[in-house]
Amino acid sequence: MAQVREVIELLTKILRENGTTKIKAEIFRLAKFDKDEAVVPLWKLLFELIYFLENGTIDDVVIRAFSQLTTEEMAIYVKQKMQNYGFLSRSFSLLPNDMLTGSRELLLALAWLLCTKNIIEKFMEKCSSPIDDDIYEFQRDGLDQSTNSSQLSHSLTGKLTAVQKVQQLQQLNGKLRFSLRQLYALQSERTRIQHRIHESTQGVSLSGDKKHLSVMEVYLLRNPEHLKKILRLLEKDNERLQNLLHWKEQEDVFWKWMESVLDMRLKNLSQSEQEERDTKPMVHYNIPPDIIGQMHAARKNLEAAIMKYESIIEHLEELWETKRRAITEPELNNLLAAINEEIAYQRATLGIDHEDGFRYEGRYQEPRLVLFKNDPSMKSTNLRQQRSESNTLQAFGVLGSLEGLDMPTDIQTEIAALEKYLHRMEIEASGKQRGYLAELDKLAERIPDAICIQPKTVR
Amino acid sequence: MTQSIVVQVGQCGNQIGCQFWDLALREHAAVNKNGVYDEPISSFFRNVDSRYNDPVDIPVGTGKGKIKSLKARAILVDMEEGVVSEMMKGPLREVFDFKQLITDVSGSGNNWAVGHKMYGVQYHDQLSEVVRRSAEFCDCLQCFFILHSMGGGTGSGLGTYVLNLLEEEYPDVYRFVTAVYPSAEDDVITSPYNSVLAMRELTERADCILPVENQALVDIVNKISEAIPSLKTGKRTYNTVSGDIKANTAITGSDGGLVKPKDEKPFDSMNNIVANLLLNMTSSARFEGSLNVDLNEITMNLVPFPRLHYLVSSQSPLYATADVNLLPRQLDQMFSDAFSKDHQLMKTDPKHSLYLACALMVRGDVEISDVRRNIERLKGSLRFIHWNQEGWKTGLCSVPPVGQPHSLLTLANNTCVQYSFIDLRDRFLKLYKRKAHIHHYTHITGMEAEDFSMSLESLNSIIQEYADLEKQMNNPSPPEPRLQVLT
Amino acid sequence: MFLIVLILTSSCIMSIITLQLGQCGNQIGGELFTTFIKDAHAKPSNVQVSANRNEQYTEEVISKFFTTESQSDKFDVPQARAVLVDMEPKVIAQICTEAKRTGKWMYPEKQQFSQKRGSGNNWAHGFCVHGPRVKEKVMNMIQQEAEKCDNLGGFLSLTSLAGGTGSGVGAYVTQCLRDEFPNSFILNQVVWPYHTGEVIVQNYNAILTLSHLYQSADAVLVMENDHLHRICTQLLNIKKIGFKDINNVICHKLASFLLPAVTQKYTDHRRSNAFGEVLEHLVSHPDYKLLTIKNIPQMSDTSKQFCTYQWHGLLKHLRQMLIADASMEEGIDWQVHLGDGSGIKHNQSLANALFLRGKDLDGIDVSSFSDPKLYPSWILPNTGVAVYKQPRIFNDYEKSAALVTNSRSPIGSLNHMIGKAWNMFSSRAYVYQYEKHGLTEEDFLDSFVTLEQVVANYNTL
Looking at domain B312-416, does it have CATH number 2.60.40.2230? Predict the structure, then answer.
């Protein structure tokens, strides 16, 4: 058992190193025996790990969330997420939302999550050399990060007339545009400087896969006082890797122990619980009880509708065939063009997000410009470079759906897709413009002696 | 830097031209003491190596090359040989070359039709060729200055023919005409005919006309001789640089130029005034200054409506005093003088008429604050049209005229010119009512009787247009209401 | 390793490219770079900062406005980040010679464009004829200048409103800049002509220019010759005022705005008064783009050494200059008060940027500039004023302040100018000269509409 304890302690250490709230190994032991003291810490741990899976990190947002959400909300959120992941344990679903009991179920859920979601491997991926091209860690210190969002929301809800509100929004919009342009300038400067660093350090290299120094390395050369800090970071990183390595060697022990937990649970599954289980609804599914009836009804409706429209379409087709001979070729073309335009316009106004899935939520990565020369020894890094190139593209304002794809995407197709998108935006914009202009004219008609002079670009 | 070509036609035009080139050489010699061929000189002169028979131009380049031999960008046209051949014998012969001349022997007999319809057609190709040749020597030809009289036959007739030719072949090059109007007691009996026939062409074809009245020149010359009686008898020096400048600063004088005083002709002092007008008008385009005025700015600012392009000019000071202490007062006096009646080159009084626009072309050590002070001081006594109450254009050229610390040339688009035109019309009508001498004109091929009536009509309409504007002096028509923005 | 160090020190500072257009723009430009270089090379003892700090500052000024790298060893003087455009060669030749003669800086070769023939005060000739003709060459020069910058902070273009080249070609080039550098910041400094006396068609040229700049520039910084002239006579005691004196005042104003100063937002931050950041603060609302600069103190060199100022007094004057809309510290109307409804209406602002240079910068109270009554009700609270500081003494003033303001200040003159232009337009005087080059009456009307709208916008502020 002593060995088990060591392994569990190792696990808690690893968890803590990756940002979760501190948890004692003792909690695990208590949970095995379904002790209630272990319930709350385990909920919290589960919650944090889920957050990690969703966002790739554990930051202060999750810590704040834990204190701000009610226990009930938290429990339901965790249950739902677990179900989404595929953890369909009935007894877990039936755990009380007040977080008073059920630590063993929680422990099992935790183990399941650790195992199926490869959380430990993910932790390992996160460990990377601090001597990368990122020197942010050092420079961020000086910046004031507290943006006063409450002030903003306060004044936005202030008492303003409609016109004043429009003015305010116009100004805020302007500020946003200016900020974006500043960001753009900074970004291109960063890329430029990075390129120059790489270029001027050609031939000097610390690692094998690069032929130049990274920005970080150059930075450290210029500011050797930061070397200590880096060294500390490296040591810490090393320690984390050590721990993970130990875990890999010894995780069998943990899983064996988990088996014993599972056994215990099966043994303790009492009849009373068995009965209870059948009567309690599984709240977190959020499915109304009469859903099946509704679905049946909907299906019937749909079928009826299809039948109805099919007959109409048949009728129309007949009409079309008969009328077709009466229409000349050019007329036909015009008609088709008009219909197509109308369809395109309608589709545009319906919103384009549904179609090709242009996603903007892709996790943003800093671009890397890597000097690339045709060198056979660099083949292994090719993939990485291409990804980097696409990232650079993104940084220059070309947003795309590259994130999340693991294979390099052809830039041509990307450009084609964007052009298509742009075209649709143009259709939408011109449609809107037409509408507004007509509206303006209508408004102007109501005022005597006034004419509406459109800006020249519109005319 | 742009270049200009001077086209001098007829006896009067060539005499003025002769003085102009003389003074231009003197001016550049005074400014450019190193004898290098630079941008300012290049605007009126070519630099050639005269050892060759058909010399190629030496370009300005860095502006540091030495002057080899200067050739005037000039075209000399006269239908009698006298003036031109004398010029080609005189000291200025070096700056002209025979390829720039077009002469005949028989003259135009003070007949516009002979000059315009006969010689014009006869010499068309030759004129076109000479102009083309001169134009090709310019890398950016901006302006033709056409000098001629209105009263004679060659100047008014052939001069306006050249104007038409230039408009046709060089539509983008500005055409400035300096036209000398005959006085009422002109000894040429047909001068009113010639003037009115020529004016129709000027009104239609020129970009800008600087009319000069003979009588005004006579009066100015007399005024100066009264002030400086020594001018006729005083010591003369031939050296510009070391000479006694103050004594020889009258704008009628030509001391220091190539033309020796003993050669001076009776009209030279009058012609010098006109020559100075040209020099001062182009100075701001040639030399540096804190507020340059290019030639194209003159029409842009002074001609609000295309046909109303007759600019009344005046120059001051007429001579400089040697007393340096008087300078500040002298400066303000210069501005006052320029607006006085007896400094105008037309026998009219702009102060009693309506200004459409006015340009102040200042040379020498004058700053913008001096100009502004004087505008403020003078504008109370001047009346501007209601839509151009602040119709002032200023040019500041830092290079003063030779021998003077500063000078002022005003160019005014003023409705007062109509009175000179009305006088001219009266004289014209006196003859025309009797149909006197008409047959001398109509027997020339191409001349029709309608030319007279249409020219008269053109003159009438110009007078009318100026008169209509002058009527607005006291009761301006209300402007359209401004656009209102709905908020 | 030395190489790397060099790179890193010479970058990090955003650079500004200056476009000098027309006679006025070129003359101001020449003067402006001399002002910068003079300030950069001032001795530490004269500007009262440590030698180390002074060196840093010098380096910052130089890399902001000049390039120092050279292909050959021939140039060791800094070269201005500037592109010079004029349609006639005289002025450019003159300022280039003058710059070279200083021995402290020069203009880059091949970044000057001039032709033989000016625009003749005709805006249409500049905009419709010269503009398209010179576009390619000028844009190439600008592109080349831009490529010399690690961080292109933006463009400063200098023109007059009155002439033809500066205004016409200037408006055209600004449009091209906007197309070519859609993400850059463009500030157009325009010199407003005297009410009378410079160019007769100046009001036409001015409305055509302003209306076009309003579409393409981020901000239009207005300097009125009449105001500058008055500063020369009343504050600087100059008897015979030339354009050189006027341009000196302009450069003092521009430099007090553009020279390095640090915001309070970030303490240890070398990206001081970044062009974009200041513009974001001042002109983020697209309807309001007109800026003016009010300076205090301004006096002749001889008086400077006898005067001492307290920040409190300076700022009190400056604030009154703002609300009473005085162009200088003399003759301010102290009767104007903020928004009591009665009496004279004060000059309403949309945004202000305050630049303080000189000694004793700590603990200066600038709260009087953030009074909500100064600003429209719809701006976010406490966002009216941004403050930038620089402990280095500027232009021998122990303490000096400059207020760049987006306020109603230039509207009176603008309204006056529109009125005069409209009056002339009613009789169609001079219009034929513009039509000759392809401008139509409708174009004039467009410009009138745009500017009447601007006036109306500011009046409802």
Answer: no
